[in-house]
Specification:
Elements lengths: L8 H11 L6 E5 L6 H9 L5 E6 L12 H13 L13 H8 L6 H10 L10 H17 L2 H17 L8 H14 L4 E6 L7 H17 L10 E6 L1 H12 L5 H5 L8 E2 L3 H15 L2 E2 L8 H21 L5 H5 L8 E2 L2 E4 L2 E7 L5 H12 L2 H11 L4 E5 L6 H10 L1 H4 L11 E5 L5 E10 L5 E10 L8 E5 H15 L6
Parallel strand pairs: 1-4, 1-5, 2-3, 3-4, 6-7
Antiparallel strand pairs: 8-9, 10-14, 11-12, 12-13
Helix pairs in contact: 3-8, 4-7, 12-13, 13-15, 15-16, 16-19, 17-19
Length: about 500
């Protein structure tokens, strides 16, 4: 089986150029859900000595409606930092820590609360037990040095601390500790990067509580990031975030002004669909297990090129129109695909035995159905797009392979697959749509023994006027009609 590692070289170059300018310390990384944002960022920052990355996924937190997501963010950042190469012996505590200490009944309370919050992060404390033990030891050493004068000083500070706690200008023990640990990493000539992923998938109340804390910090100190990180990357779908913002604050609220706080230069729009589709195509070509229950009418090795092109073109349209996520494509190797080339019984046709591979579109639909998990989901996607996706077609210029694989099936009620008796006759099938298009075609032989059925398009006729050689076609209208005929007359792709 082929290695399904997706190439990120093209978007990598774009992101490197976006990340590198001096002063670009806040990045808004945008793409729709399921387009591979997280996969890309993991690959981009993997095995790098230039960056120290803390990658957070707040969508995984167990956050009750009355809990503060930003408190969990701080605990998560600290959790990740304690797994890095940091010398806790160099950790210094200041007045803020003294205040936190005197608010506690026990010197371990601060550390204990960290353990308690770890369960809400969905993380095991095992990897950081040693670090926390060292931190507690340091805490005890600090405690032994506190004198009466410092006690007075601490209680004077408590009032300030209590005001700050829970506000968007919060600054407690954990914040100070995180800043201290991040500074140690910055001192090693590394760029520290905080990534907050899947922002638009968090509950709206938590999204804006989280963002507002960062926004308040940027308003107060525009030259420095929260916690002292060199760069902060906010990962979201800006289009979706805008919709959530409008629902919460109203359509007339200035979203652009709010959003501007979270990027220094411009929004980075991520797109790696080209490379993902290339890998899907390779996967189809190289790993198609073929169960030859019959004598196939063509050699899959040769036919895959045409079928693969049909698959990729349809899949790309599905992704671009929100009916398929690239995440589902990336996970393809986790499931096995076997094409069983069975004979098909076709209503109204009894001249000879035909199998599924007699029709180019059937293996293509089977692979797309495999991507979705079942034929019902594939049908639902086709149906949703049948009157929404239009493609401009140019006679003599545009690719015809999808249309040639389906037009004669759509016209089956008229042609009855009489391809051997009527091979040279040009037929016309009307495509009922807003564009009133018709397609002229003739049958073409297909396969090793020339008993597969295909068609050759001779011309598209558009209603714009005589001699006009271009127009629009609702591509999924044709695809959906083809699927319905395969269900009704071939007994295929039924729910």
């Amino acid at each position: 089986m082929t290695d399904f590692k997706i190439s990120i070289e093209e978007p990598r170059k774009d992101f490197e150029n976006h990340l590198s300018p001096e002063g670009n310390n806040r990045i808004l990384f945008s793409a729709p859900f399921g387009t591979g944002k997280t996969y890309f960022l993991k690959e981009f920052f993997k095995d790098t000595s230039k960056y120290e990355v803390v990658h957070l996924y707040p969508v995984n937190y167990s956050v009750a409606s009355n809990e503060d997501i930003f408190e969990l963010i701080k605990h998560d950042v600290l959790f990740e930092l304690l797994q890095k190469d940091i010398d806790l012996d160099n950790t210094e505590f200041d007045d803020l820590f003294i205040a936190q200490y005197f608010l506690s009944n026990d010197s371990f309370d601060v550390i204990k609360s960290f353990f308690e919050n770890s369960s809400e992060l969905g993380k095991s404390i095992v990897p950081i037990i040693n670090s926390v033990e060292k931190l507690h030891k340091k805490f005890e050493e600090f405690k032994s040095k506190i004198n009466s004068n410092e006690t007075t000083k601490a209680f004077d500070f408590i009032k300030k601390f209590e005001v700050k706690k829970g506000s968007i200008y919060e600054e407690d023990f954990y914040t100070q500790l995180i800043r201290n640990l991040v500074q140690q990493l910055n001192d090693k000539d590394k760029e520290t990067i905080l990534i907050i992923d899947d922002l638009d998938r968090i509950d709206p109340e938590h999204i804006f509580r989280l963002l507002n804390v960062f926004a308040a910090h940027f308003d107060h100190n525009d030259s420095e990031n929260k916690f002292g990180f060199s760069k902060i990357i906010f990962v979201t779908d800006v289009v979706n975030l805008k919709s959530i913002f409008a629902t919460k604050y109203g359509e007339n609220t200035d979203f652009s002004g709010y959003l501007n706080k979270f990027f220094s230069l411009n929004i980075f729009v991520f797109d790696n669909l080209k490379n993902i589709l290339k890998k899907v195509k390779e996967f189809y070509y190289e790993t198609l297990p073929y169960d030859n229950n019959t004598n196939a009418v063509f050699n899959f090795k040769d036919a895959n090129i045409i079928i693969g092109d049909i698959v990729i073109n349809i899949v790309e349209l599905l992704v671009n129109n929100g009916q398929l996520t690239t995440r589902s494509l990336i996970k393809l190797p986790e499931r096995k695909f076997v094409f069983k080339d069975d004979f098909v019984k076709i209503i109204g046709y009894n001249k000879e035995n035909l199998c599924k591979s007699s029709f180019i579109i059937i293996p293509a639909f089977e692979f797309i159905s495999y991507i979705y998990g079942n034929a019902q989901l594939m049908e639902q996607a086709f149906n949703k797009l049948k009157d929404k996706v239009k493609i401009e077609y140019y006679n003599g210029v545009s690719d015809k392979f999808i249309y040639e694989a389906i037009v004669f099936i759509i016209d089956k009620p008229n042609n009855q697959f009489a391809f051997k008796d009527d091979i040279d006759n040009i037929r016309t099938v009307a495509i009922i749509s807003d564009f009133n298009t018709s397609i002229e075609y003739k049958f073409a032989k297909w396969g090793l023994r020339n008993n597969g059925i295909h068609s050759e398009i001779t011309k598209m006729n558009f209603s714009h006027g005589a001699g006009v050689d271009s127009g629009y076609i609702y591509i999924f209208d044709l695809i959906y009609k083809t699927l319905k005929i395969l269900q009704k007359d071939f007994d295929l792709f039924k729910s």
